Structure formats: structure tokens, C-alpha cells
Amino acid sequence: MLSEQSLELIDLVAQLGSFTAAANHLNKVPSAVSYAIKQIEDEIDVVLFERHHRSVSLTPAGSYFVEEARQVLKAMAVLKQDTVKVANGWRPTLSIAFDSVVRADRMAYLIRDFYAHFSDVELVIRKENFNGVWESLISGRCDMALGATASIPVGGPFLTKSMGKLHWCFVVAVDHPLAAFDVPLADEALLPYPAVCLTDTSWQFVAREFSVLPQQRRIQVPDWVQAINLFRAGLGIGWLPRHLAQGFIKSGSLIEKTVVNPLPDSDCALVWNNRCQSPAMQWLLQYLGDEQQLRHYWIDEHSA
């Protein structure tokens, strides 16, 4: 049966062009190399080398065999290396789900630093909303989630780091009819206007709809960027995470309104599957840091 050593021997003879030169390289006698090559040729029933007086050359079949053998040897070397890496916790990919509440402009820096540190691991980035984050974790579509909110008691091997609280503010456009109200807005005042809300990306869990009143029409959008565009255009009203809204409020393009029934603050967390530990996961957890660093970098508007 052809072995790795057999392929390496044929490759060596092909490179040196002589049984004697190959034997000297291996500290063997020429007859041992010649005999080993003859056994391989007999096994596959193909002549690989033409024998000359003091040298050998590849036959056409031999040239094909050597080229393919070199690819096999490379693949075997990679297989050995990857097997050792897997035994030491290496995984070829790391999947991260980002909830829309985190700052999307920071994602490119994380990817840049990760790829500078790891040459053999790929990042898979997913964008999820609300319970879709948890579904992605539980189903195994992602190994880590950044910005998970309103945790569901799912059990299992999940660990968390707090990212602090998410604060919500109710906003309307500058020229919206509600902008002129100088008293806290009751639910009855809000009902005539469509509520802009994010689509929960969960397919199996019950969708979370915390920002819509009963009987109120909705405008569902995929992310907060689209929501802000609709708020500014006066096409709907609703809630925004304060860290995403405050820049528009300061610039005067959105107005924050007080409501009779405000939304409570939401817990926000980094969550990861502890069964998916790998050198890349450990590096990323250290890179993301503690609660203060997580919040400063991924939530706070003034992050640098």
C-alpha cells in the first residue's frame, strides 16, 4: 500500500534525478532505494522512472504521479497540523451575532484586529434583533452574541458579561403633531400614529414587541438606522435606545417626548457558549474586556 514515505521517496528521486543521490541524502545504499522504487512501480503496475546509466528520469505517467503525489503530501501535512490544532481547541470559524443596539461602526475595528491576530480562523458576522440573538445562540448559529437584551431563561452552557443598562427615549420628528405637546403623552395620544419598531429576527421564539400599544399600527424595519430615518421623516413615532438617539436629539432633528408609560431600562450583555472555547474565543473575550470597556466601546456615543 502506498504510504507517505513512499510518496516522499518518489518525490526525492524525481528532484535529484538519481537513485544514488537519493540514497546519499537518506544515508542508504543505492540498491535499497532502487528496490523500494521498483516495489512501488510493481504495486501500481506502472513504470514511473526510465533508468539510464547513472541517472533516472520520469516517464509521462511518472510526471503525473509526482505532481499529484506532491499535492497529497501537502494535504497530509495540513491534515496533521489541523488535527493537532483541533486537539488544542482550534476551530476554523468563530460566529458572532450583533444585536442592532450595539454600535455598528465598531465592527470593522474588531474584524481588523481579529484577522491581524489569527491567520487560520474566519469570523462569521450575523446581525440579529431581540429574541433572534438568543435563538441564534441556542441553535448554534453563533458562538457569541454582543448586545443581547432581555435574557430568556434558556439554560445550557451560556456565560455572560454585563454591558450595563439600555435606556430608552420616546422620539418624534420636529414637525410631528405630537412635538407641540407640552404634557406627558398618554397612550390615547399615541394610538393614532404608526409605531416604528424593529422586526424580531427569531423564527422559533415568540417575537418581542415591547414598543407597540394594543391596536396601534406598526411600521416594522430591520434595524435602528431605518427606524431613525422614518422618525426623522415624521412617518412614525416610537422608542429608540438613548445612545443611538442622543446625537439626533442634540442636533434638533428629533425631539424627545415624555410619556405617561415609559419603557423600563433593559439589561444588555455579552453572551457566549462556554462549550465553544477555543484560542480565538479566549482572545476575543479578553479583547472585548469588562463591563466598563464593553459599554464604553459598543454602547456609549462618545466612545473613542
Automatic annotation (TrEMBL):
GO terms for molecular function: DNA-binding transcription factor activity; transcription cis-regulatory region binding. InterPro entries: LysR_HTH_N, LysR_subst-bd, WH-like_DNA-bd_sf, WH_DNA-bd_sf. Keywords: DNA-binding, Transcription, Transcription regulation. Residues 1-59 form the HTH lysR-type domain. Belongs to the LysR transcriptional regulatory family. This is LysR family transcriptional regulator. It comes from Shewanella fodinae.
